[in-house]
Amino acid sequence: MSTLPIRLFGDPILNEVTKEITDIDHRVAALADLMIETMYEAPGAGLAANQVGVQRRMFVYDKGDGPVVVVNPEIKESDGEWAFEEGCLSVPGLSWEIVRPNRIHLVGFDLDGNEISIEADEYEGRIFQHEMDHLNGILLVERLDEDQKKAAKKTLRKRAVSLSANDPDGLHSLFGG
Length: 177
Fold this sequence. Notes:
- The chain is built from four helices and seven strands.
- With 177 residues, the protein is an alpha+beta fold.
- The chain starts with 25 loop residues before the first helix and ends with a helix.
- Helix content is 32%, strand content 28%.
- Strands 1-2-3-6-7 form a five-stranded antiparallel β-sheet. A two-stranded antiparallel ribbon has the order 4-5.
- The chain has two domains: 12-142, Peptide deformylase (Peptide Deformylase), CATH 3.90.45.10; 144-177.
């Protein structure tokens, strides 16, 4: 099995709201398998479908107990507050302390079409909220205050210019050498 390329900051697909999955079929299951492999290789704790270019409401995650797939997730409730250093596979190498609700109630479906309901807090709840942001077209950078956002975007622009200067036609990054 191979992995999928992860879309990075600046890719417009990351700013679009994803569409519901209407039929959980073999294609959705195959995508989930590829996403799990991609998440592990990155490495990350979660990965939303639009991060690999698929505009559907699904994410995969592993908080340490093995991979889980959530289709058409919704956060029904949230409570409390928890600050934690958070990074993102679509914004590699950068992280910030982000304040989010500490406890959430997530509902969705598994790959068999069964409804799932998860009460999560701290790290697991943060994974869910982060991936839900992706599915709603919100990048981690948008959660920053104005000064942090300005500094982050400046760093990301410099990185993009540096990458394009070192690989102007994009062939090196695709094919090496």
